[in-house]
Amino acid sequence: MKDKRLSQKQIEKLMANNPHKEQPVETTWQNVSFKGAEKEYDTLNSVEQVKTFCSFMRDVVSRFEENKRQQAEAEIEELDLKHCIELAQKLTEKDKKLLYSKLTDVLQVRRACKNENEILQPLYDYFSDKTLLNKLAQIQGNVSNIKEIITNRTYSCRTNVLDGFRSQLTE
After folding, report:
1. Residue 14 lies in a domain
2. Which of 115, 141, 118, 121 is nearest to 54 (CA)?
3. pTM of the model
4. Exposure class string for 69-90: b at 16+ Cβ within 10 A, else e
């Protein structure tokens, strides 16, 4: 039995030689875009969008947790510096300025971490759910598989209607 499957190239060649063809809608074989809406939507770009979103989620979670760690470290340093200022009896003016300067730096780091985490908190609460991230990773894999199937799709003829065109298709 003859293999009746047509490749993408063969189908495109058939369409080019079709005298009755209409102007095709703005689509390509591997990519479906919807025109006429306010903006075009690239359906096969979904894989990259899901990857980007998963990466964003991981970044938010890791950034929030790193800020928490830095904030805790800064609070310990702050306590050390305050105790040093409080309990040290023989500090020179130069030493006091250095300690206050260091304390100011530590407090600024702590404040920056707290401020950023105030912004990240609602996202962190939502994104830190491991089941959500796992589900999105699963979706990403499924979309990648579907994209691969669509990209490599061929058509198998069920009739002999294209036999007359076979010579054109194999050139």
Report:
1. no
2. 141
3. 0.59
4. ebbeebeebbeebeeeeeeeee
Tens digits of per-residue pLDDT, 6-42? 556 655 665 555 544 444 433 333 444 444 545 555 6
Mean pLDDT lowest among 132-136, 139-143, 157-161: 157-161
Cα torsion for 72, 116, 111, 79, to the nearest 10°?
A: 0
Length of the chain: 171
Name the residue range of residue 91's domain: 32-143
**Looking at the DSSP assignment, which residues form a beta bridge with residue 156?**
5
Task: Quote the number of domains for the chain.
Answer: 1
CA distance readout (Å), 13 to 7, 40, 160:
10, 27, 17
Residue 100 lies in a domain: yes
In a domain, 75, yes or no: yes
Phi and psi based region of residue 41 (left: phi greater than 0; alpha: psi -120 to 50; beta: remaining): beta
In a domain, 74, yes or no: yes
